[in-house]
Structures are given as C-alpha cells and as structure tokens.
C-alpha cells in the first residue's frame, strides 16, 4: 500500500507538470510512481533528465537487462514489474531472457558482460575488482560505456529506493517473486 500521496492532475506542481504530461503522453497513462515522484519538482525533473539522457546509452535490451538486474538486487517489486513489461514490449526480450537478466545474466555474450558488471557494481557499491572491469572491457565496452553502465545502475537504484520507500500501488502486471524464477 502506498506510503505517500499519488497526485491527481490538478495536484501536480506547475514545475512538474510538463515533465509528467510528457511521460503520460508517451506511456498512455500516468504510472503511480511518477504521480508520487512529481511532488518534488527538483527530484522528479532531475530524475527525468537523467532518464532521458541515459536512454541514449547502450542499446534498449542492455538497458532493460541492467534495470532488471539492479531492481532484483535492490528488491524493488515495483521496478521489476515496470522493467519486465518494458523488456517484453519495448526491448522485445523473450521471457527466458527477462529471467536471466533478473539473475544478472544474458544469453548474448556482450550483453551478459554488461549485466554481470552492473550487478557487481550494485552488489559491491561500486568496489568492483580489476577482473570485473577487465571482463566488461574485453567484451567490447569502452570506458565511456562502462561509465554509462555505472550511471544506469545509479539511476535505476534511485527509482528502486524511491519505490521501496514510498511503495506506490502496482499499475503494471505483477511478476513472480525472485524465489520462484
């Protein structure tokens, strides 16, 4: 049960309105997380800018796989529902790949290296070993790409933490708990 107000259209602060309206138009509805997050124009717009910038990083399958891996580690049920939905419908990942991503893996070797590295970053709070960094580089990622992976981990963690704190009601199809996958 949500632990904050889910704003109606009339309640959204003016400084959050354009950003929220843009998401609503693109998604087709206003997700509860965003309707709650919009209470703080500073935090909401900063997150939206980061999300928009990072939507150009790597490819959609890798981004969604990283989102699934990070959300699994952080135990964010809301984000797992969102990323499972987008992985299936936008990234066109098959169900087995979504399960693998939640476990920090991928069938594609290059994507697998990125997802494993992202999982290692979140699990170690960024204190990865030389072998971890070398593995992602050897898979073909540049240092700029590695920085993008780290930034994605941070952005997904922000939404995970927000949703774990405020627990907005689910508005995407619920996914199976980690123990059953």
Automatic annotation (TrEMBL):
One of its GO terms (molecular function) is peroxiredoxin activity. InterPro entries: AhpD-like, AhpD_core, CMD-like, Uncharacterised_peroxidase-rel. Residues 46-106 form the Carboxymuconolactone decarboxylase-like domain. It comes from the Bacteria. It holds the Pfam family CMD. This is Peroxidase-like protein.
């Amino acid at each position: 049960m949500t632990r904050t107000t889910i704003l109606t259209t009339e309640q959204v602060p003016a400084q959050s309105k354009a950003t929220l309206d843009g998401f609503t138009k693109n998604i087709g509805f206003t997700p509860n997380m965003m309707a709650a997050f919009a209470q703080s124009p500073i935090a909401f717009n900063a997150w939206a800018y980061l999300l928009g910038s990072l939507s150009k990083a790597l490819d959609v399958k890798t981004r969604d796989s990283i989102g699934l891996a990070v959300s699994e580690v952080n135990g964010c049920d809301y984000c797992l529902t969102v990323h499972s939905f987008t992985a299936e419908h936008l990234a066109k990942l098959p169900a087995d790949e979504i399960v693998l991503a939640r476990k920090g893996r991928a069938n594609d070797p290059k994507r697998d290296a990125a997802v494993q590295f992202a999982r290692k970053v979140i699990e170690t709070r960024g204190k990865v070993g030389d072998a971890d960094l070398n593995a992602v580089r050897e898979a073909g990622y540049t240092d700029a790409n590695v920085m993008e992976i780290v930034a994605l981990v941070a952005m997904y963690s922000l939404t995970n933490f927000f949703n774990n704190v405020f627990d907005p009601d689910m508005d995407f199809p619920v996914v199976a708990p980690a123990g059953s996958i």
